What we know:
Layout: H1 6-13, E1 19-23, H2 29-42, E2 51-55, H3 58-71, E3 81-84, H4 85-95, E4 107-109, H5 111-121, H6 128-143, H7 148-154, H8 158-176, E5 179-181, H9 184-195, H10 197-206, E6 209-212, H11 220-230, E7 236-240, H12 256-263, E8 268-272, E9 274-275, H13 280-290, E10 302-303, E11 311-316, H14 319-336, E12 344-348, H15 354-363, E13 368-370, H16 380-393, H17 398-405, H18 414-427, H19 431-434, H20 438-441, H21 446-468, H22 471-481, H23 484-491, H24 495-511, H25 519-531, E14 542-546, E15 555-560, H26 571-575, H27 579-590, E16 593-602, E17 604-607, E18 610-613, H28 618-621, E19 628-630, H29 635-658
Parallel strand pairs: 1-7, 1-8, 2-3, 2-6, 4-5, 6-7, 9-10, 11-16, 11-19, 12-14, 12-15, 13-14, 15-16
Antiparallel strand pairs: 17-18
Helix pairs in contact: 1-2, 2-3, 4-9, 4-25, 5-6, 6-8, 7-8, 9-10, 9-11, 13-27, 14-15, 14-29, 16-17, 16-21, 16-25, 21-22, 22-24, 23-24
Adenosine-5'-triphosphate (ATP) binds next to α2.
Family: Belongs to the helicase family. UvrD subfamily.
Domain Photolyase/cryptochrome alpha/beta: 1-90
Domain UvrD-like helicase C-terminal: 280-552
Amino acid sequence: MHGLNPPQKEAVAYVGGPLLVLAGAGSGKTRVITEKIAHLIATGRHEARHIAAITFTNKAAREMRERVAKRVKGEAAEGLMVTTFHSLGLRFLQIEHERAKLRRGFSIFDGDDQMAIIKDLATPGLKNDALYSIQNLISAAKNNALSPEQAAEAARSAREREAAGLYARYQARLQAFNAVDFDDLIRLPLTLLEADPDLAAGWRERIRYLLVDECQDTNGAQYRLLRQLAGTKGNITCVGDDDQSIYAWRGAQPENLDLLGQDYPNLKVIKLEQNYRCTSRILRCANTLIAKNPHAHLKQLWSQHGDGEPVRVWACTNNEHEAERVAAEIHYLHQAKEIPWGEFAILFRGNHQSRPLEKALQLLRIPYHLTGGTKFLDRAEVKDALCWLQVLANPDNDAAFLRAIASPKREVGATTLEKLAAMAQQAGLPMSVAAGQIGFLKQLTPRAAAGLDEFSRIVDKLRDAAEKVTPAELVPMLAEQSGLLAMVRSQCKDEASFLRRKANLEELASWFEGARGGGPGELAAQLALLSNADRGEPGNAVRLMSLHAAKGLEFRAVFVVGCEDGNLPHEASLEENRLEEERRLMYVGITRAKERLYLSHSAEIKRWGSVDHLLPSRFLDELPQGDLLRDGTDPERETAEKKQRGRAHMDAIAALFGDG
Ligand SMILES: Nc1ncnc2c1ncn2[C@@H]1O[C@H](COP(=O)(O)OP(=O)(O)OP(=O)(O)O)[C@@H](O)[C@H]1O
Ligand SMILES: [Mg+2]
């Protein structure tokens, strides 16, 4: 426990019952979790395989695994579960699939799949808005662990009654497809555990200690799942910060932090007050801002770090001007202060704000990584590989079969496939199974039969391999043996574009790093999880992401762009009285910065061809003005900085020409 402060040490050592660490940003909550995992293992209190840590995103889970690996070596760490709620639910359902009335290798439907079903079931002609609202209502019901019947009872409006009715039919459709959606990954395990005390006892035997990060953002169903897993004894450590609750719009219930105290009268609460992340100026900004929200107990964080740089507030003309300034400043700091690219983050309210920033960064040749915005999964070769994986994972998936058999093209035409579909339907078999049966093949032309036969043999071989190798190893094998890679090569005009597309397949493989073997079902499920969340390793690049996605992270220099009224706080929040949540979002943004913080706003924005005038965010006025350096207040300094940026710009352009 070397290097921890006294309350942190207490939190790590405490195993006398349920524990809540409630503390502000950068106070070492996540650090307490990693240290506690190491401590539980090192003291022999629990073996790694009986410990589970739950984080909010895949990325956070990955980071935590890395942090723990540094503290706990080799075998001792084996079996440790560091997962998101959804991965945990998935693992549960894979083990308990029979109880959940699912067959092995069930699929996970994402938002698009969900929408397709809802569209199909809803009254014809319903507008997209209405469909989305139905989708949200079904999801909200599931996040509160309501069954279709309970949702119908709870429905108040006509729209809610309609959604509840659809929910029942939607669920029946999922069942028929042997599929679940993301919300089911929490709801189904929860219902099973609540209905069967023996099952719950069995799982508590398996998971003997539970640690939960970002507890303020759990929704109703997730909270109840925690209670089931922690049991009455409450072998659980939760950490959270009510000031960072920013997912209410997705069903998160920060009041769960209070519930914990009611559900466990013996709950121990530890507060942390020292911030280790930010300079004092940045911290004062954060403290002053969040104090404007009503609080039961005001937290006052302090930092040992000096004042540091003033917080810059930039008044820009428009978002292109803003983007140019940000890019030039990053370039300058990288050169002059030797701050690595990966230590910069540009944060925004909405993903649509990334475009001008990307352009400005590209112009200066600054490497960047956009979280959540890439349409990676839509790239042709990636989509093809995914379909192959789905065929391996789930022979029932006819749609995936149809795409896989066409990539690369074999001697199997549309007529053959139609014939096969008809025969398969008659026999009550999925197409991929029918395609492997001699009886069917005999009825086709010899060429088509040979094509199908070859396909089936490749699938069988890969399916065997999937049992033995990890998902990350399977992807390159698949690319090679399916003929996908050769197809991509034949489609590319030059080597460079082939390598680029091949790199996409390599990146796909890298997403599975950390996932175990365990057959193709695990593989496809992991993939479905990734497709809905953050993914990919940004490497050493400037990070562009939404404020929501930045939770839990830290960077040496942070730019929060678009600090305008109507954007941050967002328009909708002004009407709906959600200003406090927007203020928390700003608080999250500010507290990501270790050394340097820039808050910028534009005077105007182009919308539908006309120009709108914007006002700076009201949050900027709520900051301690003495810690800010606003445009126009220190002309000498500004001129010097402008010169530096100009030089950085010229350097970058020179480098561009130097590259030929
Ligand atoms: N006792 C300590 N001594 C030195 N550094 C520490 C200590 N505790 C935490 N830190 C460092 O402070 C930073 C913030 O810690 P951490 O990310 O755990 O905070 P957090 O409370 O989880 O923040 P957030 O609320 O943003 O998630 C990290 O870089 C961490 O390594
Ligand atoms: Mg944290």
